[in-house]
Amino acid sequence: MKDRLQELQSEALEKVKYAEDLKALQDIRVAYLGKKGPITEVLRGMGKLSKEERPVIGQLANDVRESIASAIQTKQDKLEEEALEKQLEEESIDVTLPGRPVHVGGPHLLTSIIEEIEDLFIGMGFEIKEGPEVETDYFNFEALNLPKGHPARDMQDSFYITEELLLRTHTSPVQARTMKQKDGHEAVRMICPGKVYRRDTDDATHSHQFTQVEGLVVDENIKMSDLKGVLNAFAKQMFGSERDIRLRPSFFPFTEPSVEMDISCKMCGGEGCSVCKGTGWIEILGAGMVHPNVLEMAGYDPEVYSGFAFGMGPERIAMLKYGVDDIRHFYTNDIRFLKQYHKV
Ligand SMILES: [Zn+2]
């Protein structure tokens, strides 16, 4: 009996030693220590033993049982630890690997420029106004002193939807709409940025869709010097305090007198170079004193009220400010172009 127990012990311990997983260990536990196992069987046969032998064998059986149980427990701890280590190793993160770059977007250059223009004019007490891109012939042309058949309409060949509806060719109708809203007796000081459309053939400086920012001031006693002061402040803040401006006579049907504003060339400082075509000046925008007919059509008495208006192209501003050489860069969504200006 003693031999049998010792045999069972070494057999079980050997199996525990080579058990490869927890399932195998559990099988060994059931096989050797279970109620139907060989040790239990040995113990059942103890009745046949002599009084002297019984405690000896009983003690031995318990020792064998304990040594197998403790070997199983030790092995189980070891297997569990190994499994945990394996799992940790598989799930570990190599913090020395370079990370994947996160692509951060940014506003489109045109959006940035328009926001910059807005900020400048808000700083001078202007409000921002918007209007519809599908406009009536009346607001797009007639209310701006461009009656049907006026030759200046040819300069703004448009996309007509019906005889009376078109895609607006400038943001000026927002000026007419704003004046109408104010009912002919409230002062106006606003700019209106937005998309406009013309039937142009796309090239490096023309696009059938582009953006404009127009501005309008109407009040009592508004003079040409007010126009010059506001535009001078704008030009210096946008392009740098060292830039000068000049006003040249021009023609727009909705202003009288009308001017074009130039800024001094940055490249040559006014000496004349290839960028400014030898003149020392670069054209920036058009402006003028609001035509009395326009004031009158909007309900303002031109004897009491006067005003000035101006219009600029954010594309042109951006091209001059950042040296962009082709207007089509703004619309073709080439990320390599757009990315350069994300921190602007
Ligand atoms: Zn120059």
Features:
11 helices; alpha+beta; 344 residues; seven-stranded mixed β-sheet; two-stranded antiparallel sheet; binds zinc ion; rod-shaped
What does this structure look like?
Helix content is 41%, strand content 19%. It is an alpha+beta fold. The protein has a 7-stranded mixed β-sheet, with helices on both faces. It has a two-stranded antiparallel ribbon with strand order 2-3. α1 packs parallel to α4 and α2 packs antiparallel against α4. Bound molecules: zinc ion. The site of zinc ion (ZN) has 8 residues, from loops.
Helix percent reads 40-55%
Q: Strand portion, in percent? A: 15-25%
Order of helices and strands: HHHHHEEHEHEEHEEEHEHH
Strand order of the largest sheet: 1-4-5-9-8-7-6
- Tally of extended strands? 9
The residue-averaged pLDDT reads 90
How far apart are the first and last residues' alpha carbons, in Å? 93 Å
CA-based gyration radius:
45 Å
Shape: rod-shaped
Biggest sheet character: 7 strands, mixed
Structural class: alpha+beta
Q: What small molecules does the structure contain? A: zinc ion
Q: Please tally the helical runs, counting DSSP H or I stretches of 4 or more residues.
A: 11
Chain oligomer state? single chain
Secondary structure blueprint with pairings:
Blueprint: H1 2-18, H2 22-33, H3 38-44, H4 53-91, H5 109-123, E1 127-128, E2 134-136, H6 137-140, E3 165-167, H7 172-181, E4 188-197, E5 209-220, H8 224-239, E6 245-252, E7 255-264, E8 281-290, H9 292-297, E9 305-312, H10 314-322, H11 335-339
Parallel strand pairs: 1-4
Antiparallel strand pairs: 2-3, 4-5, 5-9, 6-7, 7-8, 8-9
Bound molecules: zinc ion (ZN).
